Amino acid sequence: MRILIVGAGATGGAFGARLIQAGRDVTFLVREHRAEQLRSDGLAFSAPDVTTRLDVRCITSVAQGDVYDLIIVAVKAPALDAVIGTIRPAVGDDTLILPLLNGMRHIESLVEVFGARVLGGLVKIVATLDRNAQAVQLTTLSSMTLGRLDGGDVPDAVREALDVPGIHLSVSGDIIGRLWEKWAFIAAAGVVSCLFRGEVGDILEAGGEEQILRAIEECERVAAAAGHTVGRHGHEGSVAMLTEPGSHFTSSLYRDLRLGDPLEAEHILGDLAHRARSVGVPTPLLDAALLQVRTHRVARARTSAGISA
Ligand SMILES: NC(=O)C1=CN([C@@H]2O[C@H](COP(=O)(O)OP(=O)(O)OC[C@H]3O[C@@H](n4cnc5c(N)ncnc54)[C@H](OP(=O)(O)O)[C@@H]3O)[C@@H](O)[C@H]2O)C=CC1
Ligand SMILES: CC(C)(CO)C(=O)C(=O)O
């Protein structure tokens, strides 16, 4: 099975490394500067169980007729439109496309162009691309869940290709439900850490437990009103993770905000707030967090325009 991974950042790099280590036929589709790094240094990957550097195949565009069996999309949301354009020549009649992004809108965007070839996918991993361009898996968590959007069967060949050491793989008959569950969690985590600007343990110590529980409730209410009630297990998992005393947990949105730009704010928070409006669910904490990150982005744009002027 020919696998194309779009993006060799944190998730693309980490899951790609696992697949390559297991001997899968993987090519990365990346932008020029990353291609240069990968060609000269290989793909550096570290996880609690392994540190390695792998020779990888990479391309910066897809030649007409160079069709792949499986395309894994591992970019952040703002890159999606560009990626939809660049992967077109790689998509044949039997190609399947597996996006790993958090949120939901990207699924709809991909389906508009590629129809039933699009699978639902989500990953649980805490990963980053460090300053040496090494994909780092920071904890032992490394799971991937996928499924047909209509609940149908995922081809055995795809399961077999992705079922490798270092990836805890599962297939779901309700991948849209799983995606909503994760979205509700990620959004609540984003609200909490961006609004109160800190780690879960610090927010709790400052007296924020009630607000954390309200943020979870708000996001889960939107999911329920959209027809995807978060189950008890999912809800309890979110509460446990966001109310663990002393926890250093922060959302990736907040980490991006601290680095300068909360890149997925509109995709994670903005889209959920938009859907909340359309189903009539009030989301005051979500709205406040969204306004906060939008203000940050406006100020940042003004400042960088000033600097470059
Ligand atoms: N990191 C994590 O722990 C987790 C992330 N996720 C989700 O996974 C998704 C991906 O996140 P993550 O891997 O962290 O993001 P990263 O920013 O680490 O990686 C994305 C990569 O995409 C590359 N990229 C951007 N535009 C293009 C393009 N047009 N063509 C090819 N490559 C491109 C970027 O490379 P460059 O800009 O250098 O070209 C970057 O290295 C997000 O939706 C995130 O929310 C989900 C679970 C956990
Ligand atoms: C919560 C976590 C780390 C789990 O994978 C995640 O998905 C994210 O921060 O984007």
From TrEMBL:
A Pfam family the protein falls into: ApbA_C
Enzyme class name: oxidoreductase
Domain Ketopantoate reductase N-terminal: 3-150
Ranges where the Ketopantoate reductase C-terminal domain occurs: 174-291
Alphabetic keyword roster: NADP, Oxidoreductase, Pantothenate biosynthesis
Keyword Manganese found: no
InterPro entries: 6-PGluconate_DH-like_C_sf, 6PGD_dom2, ApbA, KPA_reductase, KPR-Related, KPR_N, NAD(P)-bd_dom_sf
Pathway stated in the Swiss-Prot or TrEMBL entry: Cofactor biosynthesis; (R)-pantothenate biosynthesis; (R)-pantoate from 3-methyl-2-oxobutanoate: step 2/2
Reaction it catalyzes: (R)-pantoate + NADP(+) = 2-dehydropantoate + NADPH + H(+)
Domain of life: Bacteria
Enzyme nomenclature, EC number: 1.1.1.169
GO MF term list: 2-dehydropantoate 2-reductase activity
Family named by the database record: Belongs to the ketopantoate reductase family.
PANTHER family membership: 2-DEHYDROPANTOATE 2-REDUCTASE (PTHR21708:SF26), PROBABLE 2-DEHYDROPANTOATE 2-REDUCTASE (PTHR21708)
Protein's UniProt name: 2-dehydropantoate 2-reductase
Organism ancestry: Bacteria, Bacillati, Actinomycetota, Actinomycetes, Propionibacteriales
